[in-house]
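so i finally got all the pieces together for this one. its two components total, 499 residues if u count the protein bits. some of the lines might not be protein, just check the labels. i wanna see the whole assembly predicted at once instead of chain by chain like last time, that was a mess tbh
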Amino acid sequence: MIEVKGLSKSFKSKIVLRDINLNLKTGSMTALVGPNASGKTTFIKCLLGLVIPTAGEIFINGKRPDRAGQYRAEIGFMPQTPLFPPHLTPKEFLTMLEKLRGHPAVSRRALEEYFHLPPFLNQPFHQLSGGTKQKVAAVMAFMFNPPLIILDEPTVGFDPATNVSFKDLVLKRAEEGATVLLVSHILGEVEQISRDLVFLEDGRALFSGPHERLLRQTGAASLERAVIQLLESEKGRSPS
Amino acid sequence: MKTLSLLTWYQLTNLLRARWPIVYALLFFFLGCGWLYFAGDPSKALAGISNTVLFITPIIAVLYASISWYNSSSFTYLLLSQPFKRSHVFLANWISVSLGLTLSLVLGMGLAFLFYHSLSVQSLAVLFFGAILTVIFVALGSLIAVAIDDPMKGVGISFLMWFYFALLHDVLVFAVLSLFVEYPVEIPAILLMVINPIDLVRVHLLLILDMAAMMGYTGKILQSFLSGTLGQIFTLTVQLLWVIVPLSLAVHIFSRKDQ
């Protein structure tokens, strides 16, 4: 599904991604984890074709990300803090996306109900809470039933009940065959809605593989401790 | 084309529901009413309104275009994650801001003309050239915002650009032409005019209104050159270039930009 070969990205003299090699298979659930400024967002932007890599190649379903962006029809993206046009309503915004793509979204109505959105659909975005906007972002990401779902810190702003519903939805879509790439700082969430983990630190992928392998490799009792151990061992290795 | 028109429609809807278009339209309405009420003579009022439009529309357009581009960067990011072309996302923003500002100008000033029974070919020409200036300066503001990532710097440069075109340019032209007063200055004057869209529109508008007395220094010199049909075609073409060149540059930069 996603093949990344030798991906590097620099912004002027600042190196953000260094020789990343990854292979995410169809139907996999992978979490992208790492401290702040480790290159997670830039990596996602490379996948979405928003940032042009300095070196390396990316293939999504065999297609290279390009600026025309037609390949993005197969991607459902949920940003961390979506900023919607303040004077449009969620109903208008979602209809706009349907019209722009030229076909109705198969799961739109069901998702609106699932996230209890109907009472808010006709209110302008500037009147909605952050959590409600995040629910609209979730509908946006899932409504076209995309084969690839990219979630950037998706549960920030969700109440506990919505949090659980959202995780259930992600698991259901993965069971149905969608490939999920999750960016999150919440390792409990990573444990629940991913099977594989990519750990980025200073633009390098320090670990890439199943959770179990990381636990075995570090000897830690939990994923949280394993990640911290990984980070500390890397700090010990790098010259200070 | 369908993507562009749909994106433009929704962005324009979003813009028109905000308060600023009403405030902007009211500003023009009251300024128009003020001139028409106090000037007494309709031709004097029209000259005053022309100067007001030539002064206000560029600064509002350039500042609004750059500020709104910076403010909507997260929404732009959201749109760019969808299967749409970058050029469509950019152009939809330019068209919707241009249309929004033009609608406010035409409604505000148009209602003032109607209110004082002053709607005429000349007053429509003022609205038309106000719209042209709006479209040009929205293109320039969008180009600045796309090219410069830092919003403070971008808005500052937008303001300085307006300051140069609206105030400094004519002083510099006057100085240059005064220095070379013994030489034929018509050709250099035309060149100096085409590099300032406000001068260009001012000259064209005042030629149409037959108000040579209201022209700036550049305009006076150029009257004899540009008052014919060829002159009008020339100025309209250059005005068109003032839209096409910044837009093409902005689309070129935006299409290759990391965002």
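The mean pLDDT of chain B is 89.
The CA atoms of residues 84 and 108 of chain B lie 35 Å apart.
anyway lmk what u think
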